[in-house]
Amino acid sequence: MHDDELTALIESSDLDGLVRFIDGLVDARDWSGIETMRDRCREAVERGKQVWGPAEYSDYRLALDAPAERAVAVLGDG
Predict the structure, then answer these.
(1) Which long-range contacts (CB under 8 A, 24 or more apart) does 21-25 make?
(2) How far, in Å, are 14, 58, 67, 75 from residue 7 at the CA level?
(3) Dist CA 37 CA 54 (whole Å)
(4) Residues of the chain with pLDDT > 70: what percent?
(5) Looking at 1-78, which runs of residues are DSSP E strands?
(6) Averaged pLDDT, 22-40
(7) Read out DSSP for 11-25?
(8) Residues contacting residue 66 through CB under 8 Å, at least 6 positions apart
(9) How far apart are CA 26 and CA 29, in angstroms?
């Protein structure tokens, strides 16, 4: 994962860029990278950045595309 690129996308609240970043991680099947990206976006939301959408999209892509053991981790009860 390209940490500097991710930091720049989050700090600039580049939603389109973050979605493309996630899609690239999915293509690479980098599930831990998607989880890290999601967690960093959630942390940025706590600092006032408006990047909650890409964090939610990360969970969506994990649920759809990741292996079962990773996908089930993002699903809630019910």
Answers:
(1) 21/54, 22/54, 22/57, 22/58, 22/61, 23/61, 25/1
(2) 10, 16, 27, 27
(3) 9
(4) 95
(5) none
(6) 96
(7) HTT-HHHHHHHHHHH
(8) 31, 34
(9) 5
pTM score, two decimals? 0.89
Assigned token pair, 75:
């699903």
| pLDDT higher than threshold 70 for residue 1 | no
Give me the pLDDT at residue 69, please: 87
For the residues 33-40, what does the mean pLDDT come to?
96
Tokens of 40: 């960093």
Distance CA 2, CA 71 (A): 23
